[in-house]
Design goal:
5-stranded parallel sheet; alpha/beta
Length: 229
């Protein structure tokens, strides 16, 4: 079975790809150059896609900087050193408006062209930064829309399924899954504000949640370890 995997190059999406491969899916990876602050995550996505022998890896160019409104696509400082309580009380400025809706729409279009009935993505509602488009209600609504919106879903009996294998896992549980399925976390990139050579800032929400996840399983983050050696 074919599946489209939304692959950012980060810890979660890389683990979702590994799970899809382990479940017997033939993966087609889809990444986006959307005007984000850095290209580090796309370099990581290329390496991850290659390491799991994806059938094809497409990087789509769109420019969300034209709209801005996010610390990832505008001249807005990335929040640093926030507590878990602060992360959980409001939607942060690193939220990119409608990003998952845009990405899933591209995945839906490619899936229809490939006659593919599955999409995998690494959204998560536990150790995450409060993004509204990571919730199960959102994923269910998009899946319903997708099965109303395409020629394939109207003409064929089999419907499109959106898989979110990480949605109810903690970051520590996600990492354990990835280790089980041979994800090389040293080549992933989760940081919102890395240096030009890919060194994570260790202070943004994404870095702090990642550090917490590795700490909870008693393991050093191999990406940080790589830069410290």
């Amino acid at each position: 079975m074919k599946t489209i995997v939304l692959l950012s190059g980060g810890l979660d999406s890389s683990t979702a790809l590994a799970i899809a491969v382990n479940e017997g899916y033939e993966p087609y990876a889809l990444s986006f150059r959307y005007g984000q602050r850095h290209k580090v995550e796309l370099d990581a996505a290329k390496q991850i896609a290659k390491s799991f022998n994806t059938k094809e890896h497409i990087i789509v160019d769109i420019d969300l900087r034209q709209f801005g409104g996010s610390a990832l696509t505008d001249n807005i400082d990335v929040p640093k050193d926030r507590s878990e309580n602060q992360m959980g009380t409001e939607i942060p400025i690193t939220y990119v408006p409608a990003r998952n809706t845009i990405f899933l729409s591209y995945a839906l279009a490619w899936a229809e062209v490939l006659d593919c009935k599955h999409i995998h993505l690494g959204v998560n509602v536990l150790d995450y930064s409060g993004y509204p488009d990571c919730r199960p209600e959102y994923i269910g609504a998009f899946e319903k829309m997708a099965n109303l919106a395409t020629k394939a879903s109207v003409e064929e009996e089999e419907k499109l399924s959106i898989h979110t294998p990480l949605i109810n896992l903690t970051k520590a549980e996600i990492i354990q899954k990835g280790i089980q399925f041979d994800v090389d976390y040293s080549i992933t990139s989760s940081c919102y504000d890395p240096s030009s050579d890919g060194m994570p800032c260790l202070q943004c929400d994404s870095c702090l949640l990642r550090i917490k996840g590795f700490s909870e399983i008693g393991m050093d983050d191999p990406l940080i370890k790589k830069y410290k050696e």
